[in-house]
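Hi Y.,

Following your request, here is the sequence exactly as I used it, all 166 residues.
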Amino acid sequence: MEIMRDRGTRTLSRIYRVLVICLISLLSALIVGTIYGVFSRGSSQNSGHTGSMQGAQGRIEEYGQGQTFTGIGQIRVSTADPQPGMVIIFVSFNYYPDDRAFSEELALRIRDFRDIIAAYIGSFPVDELQELSEEIIKTELLRRINAVLRLGQIDVLFFSEFMVIR
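Below is the corresponding structure, written out as tokens. Let me know if you'd prefer a different format.
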């Protein structure tokens, strides 16, 4: 009976040791990650800082070209033909992720962007879409998208994919 109690105690002792080692490892990773996050964020925010009242031009110079917003994703739209065709389009644009308010607005408006694109592209039959230049389509979509934005504006739209299928 005492032998079984010793085995059970030894087994529990091993389990506790393993759990303590796991706990120490997790806490160490958390502490190291926190320290890294604090120091890396602090250095990137302070480098090139020119004051709290900074215009859009200052942000462009400080942050360069920004990043590409691809959150809208690929959209498939039926055309306005009696026998509808299909348009596959992938729209993206540059933005500045350091402008947090505008970045949040972009993320919240993805559904609106998709609806705007689908409504505009879907209003044309295949023949008219093929006659329109890509620049005309981009200009009109840009105008409509910027009309719903309040905290910033998009300068240029890019189509990484634009296919019209009958």
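Residues 63-165 form a domain with the Tetrahydropterin Synthase; Chain A fold (CATH 3.30.479).

Thanks again,
Q.
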